[in-house]
Please model this.
Amino acid sequence: MSLQIIFFILLSFAAFSYAGRRFYKIYRLILLGKEEDLSDHAGKRWANMLRFALAQGKMFVRPVAGFFHLFIYLAFLFTQIELIEIIVDGITGSHRSFAPILGGLYTFLINFIEFLSCFAFFATVVFLFRRNIVKVLRFQKPELSGWPSLDANLILLGEILLITGIFLMNGADQALQMANHPSYHHTGSFYLSRFFVSGSFSSFSADWLMIIERMGWWLHYMVILGFICYLSYSKHLHIFLAFPNSYFSSLEPRGKLTNMAAIENEVRSMLGQEARHSGAKEDFGVKDIFDLSWRNLLQAYSCTECGRCTDVCPANQTGKKLSPRKIMMDIRDRMEEVGQNINEFQERNAQAVFESKDNKSLFDYISKEEIYACTSCNACVEACPILINPLEPILQMRRYDILVNSGGPSEWLPMFNSLENNQAVWSISEERTAWIQS
Amino acid sequence: MQIPILSELVAQGKTADILFWVGCSGNFDARAQKVTRAFCEILNQCKISYAILGNEEKCTGDPARRAGNEFLFQMLALQNIETLNQYQVKKIVCTCPHCFNTLKNEYPDFGGHYELIHYSEFLNHLIKEGKLKVSKSSEKVSYHDSCYLGRVNQVYEAPREVIQSITNELVEMKRSKSNGLCCGAGGAQMFKEDEPGDKRINVERAEDALSTGARTVLANCPFCITMLQDGIKAKDKQDEVMILDLAEFILQNQ
Model:
């Protein structure tokens, strides 16, 4: 076994096991959420996944972003074929092992991938331009300053490296093929790499071309490995999580908030009615991530911070602090913090069951000013391309603040009092039907 | 005006095909009362067999629930459901999209199952069936989608069809239908001031409405009407632009 194969296998193993451990950790963090049975309506759920994740059904509401994103998405999707070949080649020490098997189809596929990669390269440049030069408004909000902005740019730069790798490796390969080098299988023309690269390679010696080809190949693969490890720290997890996220999105009507069964029992008993939810656990809304459904937590990790929600939020558009995107980012940040706490806890008490004891909660991340600025208009819900619902955690945090802290804006007190005493939102001494006579 | 009250009908051994849920605004807010009267006038004109609950009606609990006061919401919801089920109400029409949404989507969880119809859909049916006569006008109007009828319940076309049965000059605002901007009242914001910011939401929306150039802006929600009216006033355009409800618009064009 050559040194190159051993190096390839060791490096791949290290990267995949590191990434795997990180993904497993995120999986466990998501399961810290409250149970919610989402095994129903598999047909509808598959349809949502196909329509919104696979077919990007909502991306084109914003045509420019949707259009360029499609190139990157398609290039990503089809490059997987090339990635599989790279892995097979890397392990077996072969070169372009799919070419003899697939024949003409191989030539077509690689050409197709090259075209998509070329478009994706262009799209990446456009996205860098939109973020850093044109400064599209939704990428300039305060919650993106620092790491989130850098994260987005790093991914885009990584994308450029990835594509550069493809063209280096294919271009050098084409030049070697044209020189009839015996080790390089004739694959037919890769038009774009011939056009861009191999022409300028024609004066290079075969040895140099082989080195360039290897450099391109390794660059491409190393960026992919780096990417897989980096993903779990990045907003870019959506490339995987968009699928389960849209599958598990709520199928309930938008206008329906989740019931609080324990409160229903209590209210029914006050009204002399029979309780309907025996054994319902106490529930006071959402204080911390443990009170959210695992579905909400999955959504936090699926968010790619595109800001379409924030861009249409009436509160945000009129200069309020509330940003639906920040709500999702805060939930994820708090989950990461809880994850850290668990790690430290387990180091000290290997067997004990963890309880979050850092005396912090989501309220340390999300201020009351934010949650009370929401009009529940559902614009954010409508806007999210992968069916994330930022409204749910906002309203559930209101529940906690109102039910446990008796918090909330003081202006609401007269409304609450009036609802309690007069069963109307305004305290008016007239009868409800007074308008008929007037 | 003769307004049938369900308990009185039942006492006379009669019943009604449809319950008109008036809502707190429709009952108590001076501006929304006009809408209630306008809608009742149309119901009477079309000889619809309807009734209201009158003093037995309580707030649906929407603002309490969205403010986070689940306890208060459920107190109201369970009492309303008791009343509605006792009268065996099957079909309800609402002039308020918040009441409409809560009755339609939230009451089933608590044992309240009714067929809900928003009055914009109801008016549209009446016009299409020929029961409600309207006359054509060339007036330029604009229309504001309420969040709870539009985005939340996906009713975008019925109110537009009502408007287009009267005038062909419907000018859409730059943000409309699923992209419509909230008036700023939902989620119990109606009962508090905006959080600190650059501008009030209703003023932002009033600017959308004003930029259409229409002198009549139509709405389907009592909260939206209040918010837009205040927004127009903040821009000092209250003498030029009128915020009207769909039922009022119909009565003006008969």
Q: What stands out?
A: The domain at 6-122 of chain B is CATH 3.40.50.1860 (Rossmann fold). Chain B touches chain A through 72 residues (CB under 8 Å).
